[in-house]
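Try this one yourself first.
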């Protein structure tokens, strides 16, 4: 049968990335407490396409996934990218894996347990060298320092979200990144809280007011002192409770 993808293209234009998006696929990720965790990811896979070829072979991306069935993790990320380059005759390969990650979390006073969901993404590229970025989205709670200062009593607070991206020298646990973020907030977010826990969380947040500027600076300061981190980008967004807008801050640093 004719292979149309390998036909010559005369428009003389290279394509930077071509491939498949939105593949839903089961994967295994390392869990610091349980060993492994099974989850379902959304996967994007791309390679470059030289100007001489009309198209790439889309089915080969899925074939590669099937060959690594349930063994997709940070440990074999580069191996999969190398296989993509080889099988698709490409000079560069890119893959993004986004998945929900669950951590059992106990309430601060009653120790009632519930599962917290965090969205995580692994982004990898293989050109002349390799590049791997881990990204996490962490829900937090903040209390406004200005509101606390100017009010006779009380202060407004709100849920927010921190997005943290890091490059690193050696393996880093998802749990450690999440904990680093949560420790900078006015308060953690929990899935189960009893009345005693709500009292504790409310009072703790009141004693630890934070702007979005404080959040990103605190995280950046911690990452600056972590020799394993070579680059980071951190953004904090508050879903404001009394304003018709969100508050936002962003810091990026290349330590390498």
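Now uncover the answer:
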């Amino acid at each position: 049968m004719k292979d149309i993808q390998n036909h010559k293209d005369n428009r003389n234009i290279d394509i930077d990335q071509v491939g498949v998006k939105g593949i839903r696929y089961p994967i295994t990720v390392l869990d610091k407490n349980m060993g492994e965790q099974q989850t379902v990811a959304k996967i994007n896979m791309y390679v470059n396409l030289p100007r001489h070829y009309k198209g790439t072979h889309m089915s080969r991306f899925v074939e590669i996934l099937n060959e690594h069935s349930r063994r997709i993790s940070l440990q074999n990320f580069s191996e999969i990218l190398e296989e993509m380059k080889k099988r698709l005759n490409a000079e560069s390969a890119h893959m993004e894996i986004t998945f929900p990650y669950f951590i059992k979390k106990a309430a601060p006073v009653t120790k009632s347990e519930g599962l917290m969901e965090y969205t995580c993404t692994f982004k990898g590229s293989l050109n002349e060298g390799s590049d791997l970025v881990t990204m996490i989205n962490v829900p937090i709670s903040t209390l406004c320092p200005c509101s606390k200062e100017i009010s006779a009593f009380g202060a407004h607070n709100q849920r927010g979200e921190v997005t943290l991206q890091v490059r690193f020298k050696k393996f880093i646990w998802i749990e450690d990144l999440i904990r680093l973020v949560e420790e900078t907030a006015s308060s953690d977010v929990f899935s189960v809280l009893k009345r005693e826990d709500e009292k504790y969380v409310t009072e703790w947040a009141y004693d630890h007011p934070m702007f979005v500027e404080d959040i990103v600076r605190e995280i950046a300061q911690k990452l600056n002192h972590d020799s394993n981190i070579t680059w980071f980008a951190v953004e904090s967004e508050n879903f404001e409770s009394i304003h018709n807008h969100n508050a936002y801050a962003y810091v990026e640093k290349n330590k390498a």
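Discussion: The longest strand covers residues 15-31. Residues 195-207 form the longest helix (13 residues).
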